[in-house]
Amino acid sequence: MPGLYFEEFEEGAVFEHATRRTVTEADNMLFSNMTLNLAPLHLDAEYAKGTIYGQRLVNSLFILGLVGGICMQDTTHGTTLGNLGFEEVKFPKPVFHGDTIRVRTEVISKRLSKSRDDSGIVFFRHQAINQRDEIVCDCRRAGLMLKLPADKPVAAS
């Protein structure tokens, strides 16, 4: 599914993304090792048994990346010029191996770009939610989105 152009985003719109992902031990191990995050809380099962969680945690930056990947399919695939930044990133609950993550996106606001004629900035709020309906990641993101080409009409909502 192609992403939406700047004009097609409506403030207050909410996307309940259909794609879900069960996070595996391999995901966590590979991501942690690739990013050189060698924290025993992510990698060492015996160490993690002695923590407040009693088990290894999935690397939170993997979850943030997963949020970006899941939401892209319905919102920005092929119509973004790039992320301008993430802010207010929170991880209110931990993610464990075997948790299934879904994502909800809300369009907070948007404005035309001040420096580019072909684009605007859309401000999103993304929430990752586990199978227990707990929010495990909550963040705001600004995306630089292409404006509709002159020959393409705005899609009906």
Shape: elongated
Approximate strand percentage: 25-35%
Provide mean pLDDT, rounded: 94
End-to-end separation: 16 Å
Identify low-pLDDT runs. none
Please state the structural category.
alpha+beta
Radius of gyration: 18 Å
List the helices and strands and how they pair.
Elements: E1 14-16, E2 21-22, H1 25-34, H2 40-43, H3 45-49, H4 60-75, E3 80-90, E4 100-112, E5 119-129, E6 135-146
Antiparallel strand pairs: 1-4, 2-4, 3-6, 4-5, 5-6
What does this structure look like?
- By secondary structure, the chain is an alpha+beta fold.
- Helices cover 22% and strands 33% of the residues.
- The chain contains 4 helices and 6 strands.
- Strands 1, 2, 3, 4, 5 and 6 form a 6-stranded antiparallel β-sheet that branches.
- The mean pLDDT is 94.
- It comes from Amycolatopsis acididurans.
- Belongs to the enoyl-CoA hydratase/isomerase family.
- Residues 12-114 form the MaoC-like domain.
Briefly summarize what is shown.
It comes from Amycolatopsis acididurans. The protein has 157 residues and is an alpha+beta fold.
Looking at this protein, list some descriptive labels:
alpha+beta; six-stranded antiparallel sheet; 33% strand; HotDog_dom_sf; MCH/BMMD; MaoC-like_dom; MaoC family dehydratase; 4 helices; 157 residues; 6 strands
